[in-house]
Amino acid sequence: MQRIKLELKDKPLEPLIKKRSLIITPKRIILVVFILFLIGVGWYFWHEVCFLIKPLDLEIIQPSTDITANQENFEIIGRTNPVAYLTVNGQEVYIDKEGNFRKEISLTNGLNIIKIEAKNRFGKTNTIIRRIIYNQ
Predict the structure, then answer these.
(1) What is the three-state SS of 82-112?
(2) Angstrom distances, CA of residue 90 to CA of 4, 9, 70, 101, 105
(3) Which of 105, 111, 106 has the alpha carbon at shortest distance from 135?
(4) Is the link from the previous residue into 12 a cis peptide, with omega within 30 of 0?
(5) Which end of the chain is more exposed for a tag (fewer CB within 10 A), N or C?
(6) How far is CA 130 from CA 46, 75, 83, 85, 88, in A?
(7) Alpha-carbon distance 122 to 126, whole Å?
């Protein structure tokens, strides 16, 4: 009997169909949905923490700086958070749905110090002080 010796010198055969790494499977869909959910929860908590930490928005449009006025009645105009509690020199001021407010004050002769204070429901306050000199 004759023995036949086989030698393989060629490379092994590669499969005709290559694996694709981007196949959509239910497991991958669940993983993507779970990751999106975690991102959403993280964004929500970040938004809430920033809301609690940052100071209340308060912007005074008129007067933009300390000024000298020659009218006895002067109007304070500004913008803040619509749910804030706002006072001008201790008097409560109405805020509309967009957060705009206006308050007319009577000036006395000389230096008038106007204290505008906004407070949110957590007790955080933001105060702006304007000095108006009234010359009769």
Answers:
(1) CCCEEEECCEEECCCCCCEEEEEEECCCEEE
(2) 108, 96, 24, 15, 12
(3) 111
(4) no
(5) N
(6) 34, 12, 23, 19, 11
(7) 12
Q: Which amino acid is at 28?
A: R
Query: Exposed/middle/buried for 116, CB within 10 Å: 0-12, 13-18, 19+?
Result: buried
**Residue 113 CB contacts under 8 Å (≥ 6 apart), including other chains:** 129, 130, 131
- The residue assigned the tokens 């933001």 is 126
Parse the chain into domains and list their residue ranges: 25-54, 58-134
pLDDT confidence of residue 35: 97
Signed CA dihedral, 64, 69, 71, 72: sign only: positive
Given the candidates 3.40.710.10, 2.60.120.200, 3.30.70.20, 2.60.40.10, the CATH classification of the domain at 58-134 is 2.60.40.10
Q: What is the pLDDT of residues 67-121, one digit of tens each?
A: 888 888 889 999 998 888 999 999 999 999 999 999 999 989 889 999 999 998 8
Residue found by looking up tokens 């108006």 in the block = 132
